[in-house]
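All the exercises in this workshop are built on plain-text protein records. Sequence and backbone structure share a record, each on its own labelled line. The structure tokens are whole numbers drawn from a learned vocabulary of backbone shapes. The record below serves as our worked example for the rest of this section.
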Amino acid sequence: QVTLVESGGGLVQPGGSLRLSCAVSGSLDSINVMRWYRQAPGKQREWVAVLTNYGSTNYADSVKGRFIISRDNAKRTVYLQMNSLKPEDTAVYYCRGDSAWGQGTQVTVSS
């Protein structure tokens, strides 16, 4: 069974950048689709980005052009590079590999 562990969250000023990591316990190749989600306080969890085994990516409109999802199979890690961060990006960010979820990492964008 695959387990996922996110890291890289923290406090950043508006306009700044963070890179989130999602470490996969098993083989990353065994996972067909990797996704990032986020959940802001008082809001429902929302999808942010997706990366398939074929290398296809897609992003929510709210992050398109600012966030980049990528993977390093050798390190069994999926990344979410977040640039030009805004206060509305503040949320707990979760990675999902097929049906497995990580525990989340907090991202706070504030001056």
User: Anything to note?
Assistant: The longest strand covers residues 18-24.
